[in-house]
Amino acid sequence: MIDGIGNAEQILREKFGEDVEIKKFEKSKGWLAKKLSSSEDHADKLISVLEERSIWQKYGF
């Protein structure tokens, strides 16, 4: 990271050993994305944008 090259998982395993448990957190998909789930990344991005806009419209933005 700052003092070397590597990703977070590599650095954690070097510092704390191979038994370290690394949990990954991801943003959950909205209801529309779940209904129209697709393997294409572009469709997922479009759905996310549409969901976000619909949420902001509730507040007049």
Can you put this structure into words, describing what you see?
With 61 residues, the chain is an all-alpha fold. 51% of the residues lie in helices and 0% in strands. It is elongated and about 50 Å long. It starts with 7 loop residues before the first helix and ends with a helix.
- Tell me, briefly, the overall form: elongated
The low-confidence parts are none
Euclidean distance between termini CA atoms: 39 Å
* Beta-strand fraction estimate: under 5%
Kindly state the percentage of residues in helix. Answer: 40-55%
Instruction: Estimate nothing, just give the exact number of structural domains.
Output: 1
Largest sheet: none
**Structure classification:** mainly alpha
Order of helices and strands: HHH
Total helical segments: 3
The total beta strand count reads 0
Specify Rg, calculated over alpha carbons.
19 Å
Q: Residue-averaged pLDDT, rounded?
A: 78
List the helices and strands and how they pair.
Blueprint: H1 8-16, H2 31-35, H3 41-57
How would you concisely characterize the structure shown here?
The chain has 61 residues and is an all-alpha fold.
List its traits.
51% helix; 0% strand; mainly alpha; 61 residues; elongated; 3 helices
